[in-house]
Amino acid sequence: MNKEELNTKLKYLQDNIEQIEAVVYVLLKGETTPKKLDIKSDDLPNIKKMFVDSIGSEIISNTDVSVVLLSTSDERKNVIYEYDIEVPESLQCLQHITSSDDYEMFDLADDNINSVVAMIIELGDEQKQVVLFKTMAQINIYGRSSFFLKKSPQRFEELKEEFFRISPNFHLLQVDNSLLVLSLDTLEKSFGFQEIIKKEAKLGVEAIEAISLVENPETLHELIDNVTTARKLTKVAKASPVLKSGIENDKIIQFCKSFPRLKGKIKFNADGDKIQLDTKVSKALFIQLLMDDFLTSELTKFHYTSLAKDGADDNVAVEES
After folding, report:
1. Which backbone phi and psi does 244 adopt, to 5 degrees?
2. Quick one: which H or E segment has residue 35?
3. Cβ(87)–Cβ(195) under 8 Å?
4. What is the pLDDT of residues 174-229, one digit of tens each?
5. What is the CA radius of gyration of the chain?
6. Distance from CA of residue 10 to its chain's centroid?
7. How far is residue 238's CA from residue 272's CA, in Å, rounded to a whole number?
8. Among 11, 117, 140, 272, which is most exposed with the fewest C-beta within 10 angstroms?
9. CA–CA separation, 103 vs 121, rounded Å?
10. Spatial contact of 217 and 205, defined as CB atoms under 8 Å apart
């Protein structure tokens, strides 16, 4: 999905705001099935408008943002990631929430408000539904342990009830069959996502081992335990242009010896037919190499390191990235 396609899907909410409805759910700590909040009907239109407006300002009207696959994530800003790897169990409910109304209600008497870890907002009608997901920090949950004052006609008095503060931001978005990530930091810190990244990263290492290019591939296994470097290995498994194109090992080695950014920073074994990864820098450069991040301008012959590479061949469809 590109940004234009995403805008088209989301504009339905803006164009039909009077007829669409909002349903709010919460996810409790340790549970994977959300519970529905019983909210006064007069208050739901304001919640609906707040989130539709947020979608409009944060996504639809944001011309700087682009959509890329999560498996190809890098250090670029203003990016929405389309999820294309295994979905954590705690997020799988987003794929099913629009297909069923059979959800237990949040019980004000028995359920603990402090156990709420996330809020889910379903927006839509019979034609189209969009589901928003936002984590709930404890700073937004006010319980009995705090003391609050509210303004009354004559004085301030204690507010004894527990309550939420609902802000318009959200971290994930489910539209049609696509799960989109607006906050990669939030995803990486929650929902068992790190274990999934490590699993995908192992596939990246296995793909490298399969071509017998690296003399000491065991050093790459050390990168799996760090989520930042593991995420880079995930890209290799899913989208390495070098591996997908089947570039011969001798051509890769010759490129390492001649490209200015790599020359002298990547070493080789005694026979010169395999790469020797012995430093953090060489490992990072090697992953960039497999992602084809080192480019040479046909016009100026200058050398560049590039994260974003849009197809420009006549027979390649140019996608927004």
Report:
1. -65, -35
2. strand 35-36
3. no
4. 999 899 999 888 877 777 778 888 888 999 999 999 999 999 999 999 899 888 88
5. 24
6. 18
7. 28
8. 272
9. 14
10. yes
